[in-house]
Design a protein that fits this description.
single chain, 102 residues, five-stranded antiparallel sheet, two-stranded antiparallel sheet, 0% helix
Protein backbone atom coordinates (compact mmCIF):
# COMPACT_ATOMS: atom_id res chain seq x y z
CA UNK A 1 0.00 0.00 0.00
CA UNK A 2 1.20 3.48 -0.75
CA UNK A 3 0.52 4.72 2.80
CA UNK A 4 3.00 2.17 4.17
CA UNK A 5 5.96 3.35 2.07
CA UNK A 6 8.91 4.52 4.16
CA UNK A 7 11.46 5.34 1.44
CA UNK A 8 11.68 8.46 -0.67
CA UNK A 9 11.25 8.82 -4.39
CA UNK A 10 12.52 11.37 -6.84
CA UNK A 11 10.62 12.24 -9.97
CA UNK A 12 12.37 14.21 -12.71
CA UNK A 13 10.26 15.80 -15.42
CA UNK A 14 11.82 17.00 -18.63
CA UNK A 15 10.28 19.61 -20.89
CA UNK A 16 10.02 18.26 -24.42
CA UNK A 17 10.79 20.14 -27.61
CA UNK A 18 8.72 23.15 -28.58
CA UNK A 19 6.72 22.95 -31.78
CA UNK A 20 5.92 26.50 -32.90
CA UNK A 21 3.39 26.68 -35.71
CA UNK A 22 3.27 30.00 -37.58
CA UNK A 23 0.24 30.33 -39.86
CA UNK A 24 0.47 32.94 -42.61
CA UNK A 25 -1.46 33.62 -45.80
CA UNK A 26 0.04 33.88 -49.29
CA UNK A 27 1.14 37.46 -48.65
CA UNK A 28 2.95 36.49 -45.44
CA UNK A 29 0.35 38.10 -43.16
CA UNK A 30 -0.42 36.31 -39.91
CA UNK A 31 -3.65 34.29 -39.83
CA UNK A 32 -5.25 35.04 -36.45
CA UNK A 33 -7.49 32.49 -34.68
CA UNK A 34 -6.63 29.58 -36.99
CA UNK A 35 -7.33 26.24 -35.28
CA UNK A 36 -4.17 24.17 -35.09
CA UNK A 37 -4.58 20.51 -34.10
CA UNK A 38 -2.00 17.87 -33.22
CA UNK A 39 -2.61 14.17 -33.75
CA UNK A 40 -2.76 13.61 -29.99
CA UNK A 41 -6.00 15.64 -29.84
CA UNK A 42 -4.46 18.91 -28.72
CA UNK A 43 -6.14 21.95 -30.25
CA UNK A 44 -5.09 25.57 -29.95
CA UNK A 45 -5.78 28.83 -31.77
CA UNK A 46 -3.16 31.13 -33.26
CA UNK A 47 -2.45 34.41 -31.52
CA UNK A 48 -2.30 37.88 -33.09
CA UNK A 49 1.06 36.94 -34.67
CA UNK A 50 -0.43 33.78 -36.21
CA UNK A 51 1.54 31.54 -33.85
CA UNK A 52 0.77 28.70 -31.46
CA UNK A 53 3.24 26.62 -29.42
CA UNK A 54 2.92 22.99 -28.37
CA UNK A 55 5.27 21.08 -26.06
CA UNK A 56 5.61 17.35 -25.98
CA UNK A 57 7.93 14.40 -26.32
CA UNK A 58 10.27 14.03 -29.29
CA UNK A 59 8.96 11.92 -32.14
CA UNK A 60 6.40 11.99 -34.89
CA UNK A 61 3.82 14.78 -35.00
CA UNK A 62 0.94 15.39 -37.38
CA UNK A 63 -0.43 18.93 -37.42
CA UNK A 64 -3.48 20.26 -39.23
CA UNK A 65 -4.56 23.89 -39.64
CA UNK A 66 -8.07 25.17 -40.32
CA UNK A 67 -8.94 28.86 -40.64
CA UNK A 68 -12.12 30.58 -41.87
CA UNK A 69 -11.73 31.71 -45.47
CA UNK A 70 -8.56 29.66 -45.97
CA UNK A 71 -7.91 26.21 -47.37
CA UNK A 72 -7.07 23.67 -44.67
CA UNK A 73 -3.52 22.40 -44.55
CA UNK A 74 -1.59 19.64 -42.79
CA UNK A 75 2.00 18.70 -42.09
CA UNK A 76 3.67 15.51 -40.91
CA UNK A 77 7.02 15.98 -39.18
CA UNK A 78 9.49 14.49 -36.74
CA UNK A 79 10.64 16.43 -33.67
CA UNK A 80 14.15 15.86 -32.36
CA UNK A 81 15.18 16.92 -28.86
CA UNK A 82 18.96 16.63 -29.28
CA UNK A 83 20.29 19.97 -27.93
CA UNK A 84 17.39 22.00 -29.24
CA UNK A 85 14.49 21.42 -31.51
CA UNK A 86 14.94 20.34 -35.08
CA UNK A 87 12.30 19.10 -37.41
CA UNK A 88 12.17 17.41 -40.72
CA UNK A 89 9.16 17.52 -42.94
CA UNK A 90 7.87 20.26 -45.15
CA UNK A 91 6.03 23.52 -45.00
CA UNK A 92 2.42 24.43 -45.49
CA UNK A 93 0.79 27.76 -46.06
CA UNK A 94 -2.78 28.89 -45.68
CA UNK A 95 -4.31 29.65 -49.06
CA UNK A 96 -7.63 31.36 -49.82
CA UNK A 97 -10.33 28.74 -50.18
CA UNK A 98 -12.15 28.86 -53.51
CA UNK A 99 -15.34 27.04 -54.23
CA UNK A 100 -15.68 24.90 -57.36
CA UNK A 101 -17.72 27.73 -58.90
CA UNK A 102 -14.82 30.23 -58.61
Amino acid sequence: MLGDATGSAELALRIGPALVVHVVDQTGAAVVSARVSKLDNLDAFTDRDGKVTFRGPPGHAYVSVVAPGQASSSLSLTLDDDRGTRWTGGSCWARPHRSAAS
